[in-house]
Input
Amino acid sequence: MLNHVLANSVVCRDVSPHDVSDYVNAHVGNHRLTVLGRGNMRSSLRYTDFAQLGLSHIDYGGEVRVQSPDIEDIYHLQVVTSGRCTWDYDGDMLSLSAGQALMMNPRERIDLTYSGDCQKLIVKVPEAVLKSACMQNGKAVPKDGLRFHHRVMELNASLAFMRLVEAVYEEASESCVDIGSISQTYAGLLASKLLSIFPCNLQQECSSVGAGQQVHLIRRYLGERIKDDIGVEELAGLCNVSIRTLYNVFAKEVGTTPKLFIKQMKLQSLHNDLKQGVGARNVTEIALDYGFSHLGRFSSDYRKMFGELPSETLRKVR
Output
């Protein structure tokens, strides 16, 4: 299954496992290889970059152990096409056999043992690609980042996903020129499919709640991330509604726009910090902490809301 892909992207064939490991260390990611099998093990690697994705097919030709302190800022889709691969994650053992797949998160320790007949597809997916897919599908990326649960998926349970993975690999194999937007479409489709199939920590609280509850959820969400640069698109994604619907909700429930609501909450939090002397080094510094880069406009908005300049509030505290 899927062992025929990337036929035109052979990096090395019929070499020792250490030769494959050297290439992976130089071009894919840092790791340490321990050969557990005996005899004349012959390995192969096929690899190519496609639409921000890193696509590989690897066969060590014998039993090996692969260890790495983390996998950087990249998600890894691991698909076992034959044999078996076992992941020791802090004492929890996950075993994948042919026809099974698993998502690995950035900054997770890797400790994998390949059976002698194990072959795998590995897809490197940058954080930016999955974050973009979250926004396009109306999902808010959690503050601590998107994290997939450690659950093994049966490819037979989603033939459409398996065919999509195969299509991505086939397109990467056959494309000899930069096809731009078409290749990016493949990356977006794959990322969206990963989000829908593999369990993760995406917030899904707001798909069926009323307008008042949506405003409450947004207020809480902003309160937890008050110094972050949060846009209207992100709030619409949080509530699984369109931007137009979100504006209608705010007009009805709050009497203002989402953009102005964000600004008012930031100003109120900043005002509270100034009154309590929290981080009150100087007005410019604390304004920048909250994302107010246009200081003249910030001072004017602050004065309209509180009847005094921020410097006056700070002076009273001191």
About this structure: The chain is about 40% helix and 20% strand.
